[in-house]
Every structure is written in structure tokens, then in C-alpha cells.
Inverse folding.
């Protein structure tokens, strides 16, 4: 995916900020969403957590409930403004940071946990290894990493519109203002996700509900 396409994705999410959370009110997904929310506090209890691409902060208060410190980051001021307007645990700090490069962090900042909710699916396959390497470089040995994202369910997800030469899949999405946007959205299998992680990732765990998957691992 070109940098121009990445810029268009950032523009899409900036324009979508005010209506972003409608996806979390789909009736068929409510049980899975409640279960996912309830599962997020324990893995991060007492840890210093880097959240990548926090968006509107739907998952942030659930993950940060027992964290020692939680740095919620996003490149879009529009989506982060929605997150910052919400009640948050006192451990939460917000900062504008690029998810791919983590530019915006201090040079010496390190964390002992990381969370990425509904970001993996928007990373082009060709950039996945680079993004994970950049993330892992900011984490200490023994860090806990948790990633969650969508499974494709016919009738609940927007249909896929095309697949490119690298294997990335796309959806055509329409916003409330009537504008149409092509959005990269990949749906990895367990084996594909495990293969992308690299040698530092251990104790790999994968869980699936009807609508979501959760990848949980520890860095060596």
C-alpha cells in the first residue's frame, strides 16, 4: 500500500471520528463486545502499557482499569479528541504518535506491555513485519502483548470489494456525509498471525469468538 493510500486511510478515520463507534452497537455483536471488554484489565494489571492506534478510546478504559500507566496513542487528533472527552482511569495519558514508526515517543521510552485493538487488520501485509519490529523495539523482555481484531462474518461485516497483488483485501465504505472510501481491511488466520510475529514472540495464545479474535503473547 502506498503512502498516498495510507494518507487517505488517515483522512477516512479523521472524517469518521464522530460516527466511528456505531460499529460497536451492532446488536449481534453485543455479547462478544462485553466479553472482550471484561477480559482486558487482567493482562495489563500493574504494567506500563503502550496502546497503538487508540482511535476513539472505546477499549482504553477497559484495558487501563488496573494498569500502572497507560499511554494511549493515535495519529489522528480528531479521533483522539473523542477519546479524551471520555472518563478515563487516572493512569491514562494521551499522545499523538505514528503507529508505524512510533515517532512521538521519547527516545528512551520503554514499556512492559502493549495493546493494539482493531489496528492489525489495517496494516498492509508488506508492512506488518516492520510495524511489529518497531513495536517490539519499544518493549522490555517479558512484555505482554495483546492484539484484538475482527473476524469476517458474512452479513455483519462489509463485503470485501477486492484483493490486491500482495494479498491485502479492501472494503468500500460510505460515511454519513455520503463520501465513499476504499479501506484496507485484512482478516488473518491464526497461522498467518503467528507467522508474522518473529522470533521474540513466545507463549503464543489465540482465542476466537464469533466476531473477534485475540492474540496474546510474551516477548523474550
Amino acid at each position: 500500500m502506498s503512502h498516498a493510500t495510507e494518507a487517505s486511510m488517515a483522512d477516512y478515520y479523521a472524517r469518521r471520528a464522530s460516527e466511528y463507534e456505531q460499529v460497536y452497537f451492532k446488536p449481534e455483536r453485543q455479547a462478544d463486545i462485553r466479553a472482550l471488554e471484561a477480559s482486558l484489565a487482567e493482562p495489563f494489571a500493574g504494567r506500563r502499557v503502550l496502546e497503538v492506534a487508540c482511535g476513539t478510546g472505546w477499549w482504553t478504559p477497559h484495558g487501563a482499569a488496573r494498569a500502572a500507566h497507560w499511554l494511549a496513542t493515535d495519529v489522528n487528533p480528531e479521533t483522539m479528541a473523542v477519546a479524551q472527552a471520555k472518563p478515563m482511569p487516572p493512569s491514562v495519558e494521551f499522545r499523538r504518535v505514528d503507529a508505524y514508526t512510533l515517532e512521538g515517543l521519547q527516545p528512551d521510552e520503554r514499556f512492559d506491555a502493549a495493546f493494539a485493538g482493531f489496528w492489525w487488520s489495517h496494516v498492509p501485509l508488506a508492512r506488518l513485519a516492520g510495524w511489529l519490529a518497531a513495536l517490539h523495539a519499544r518493549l522490555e523482555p517479558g512484555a505482554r502483548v495483546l492484539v484484538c481484531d475482527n473476524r469476517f462474518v458474512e452479513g455483519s461485516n462489509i463485503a470485501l470489494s477486492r484483493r490486491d497483488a500482495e494479498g491485502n483485501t479492501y472494503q468500500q465504505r460510505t460515511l454519513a456525509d455520503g463520501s465513499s472510501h476504499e479501506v484496507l481491511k485484512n482478516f488473518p488466520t491464526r497461522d498467518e498471525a503467528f507467522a508474522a510475529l518473529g522470533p521474540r514472540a513466545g507463549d503464543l495464545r489465540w482465542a476466537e469468538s464469533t466476531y473477534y479474535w485475540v492474540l496474546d503473547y510474551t516477548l523474550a
